[in-house]
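Q: Sequence in, structure out?
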Amino acid sequence: MKEHVMKFDKKSLLLYAVTDRRWLKGSTLTAQVEEAIRGGATFIQLREKNLDEEQFLREAREVQQLCRSFHVPFVVNDNVEIAAAIDADGVHVGQSDMEAGDVRARLGHDKIIGVSAQTVEQALLAQERGADYLGVGAVFSTGSKADAVEVSHDTLKEICRAVEIPVIAIGGIGRENVDMLAGSGICGVAVISAVFGAPDIRQAARELRGAAEKMVGV
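A: Exactly. Output:
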């Protein structure tokens, strides 16, 4: 029997923070994630592209323990096996990763599955295959992901209207442009550099949390 099940609530998607070790500057990723959570991050995604499996697993356990202590959902980006190994709350996959239905079969019905989507067709398929939420973007130009494809705000609105599952926007989002997403139908925003690249992570998260709440009408 599994010891931990995180009940999924779309309100937890309000300020979705995606990690990036490029801005560690002598700190640890776990310490930075704690600052983000204390500032108001409501959901954490661990994104690692360059760590070996052993390092990734060790780091995932540390961040997971922290998130559990704050009762904040924690998912792993792309790596379904790491997510399964540590009994993470779930996983987020892109269009080139394992398909949502296969992820569900691997992790079980009680895990949170997020899927990246850039079109209405991708969004509907992800929903059909069992995704719990969608990450749509890039809604603004971004330097955090080299292969990011920009998604127009009209397409973002169309996706939100087409699906019944929650949608968050990602890509180039910062304090200065969150309000431009008002009325799109999203329930939150995913950020990387706007939090983890900030000089004061806690303050950046606090300001973004307030802006996101205003944008979605909380």
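The beta strands are 15-18, 43-46, 74-77, 90-93, 112-117, 133-137, 167-170, 188-191.
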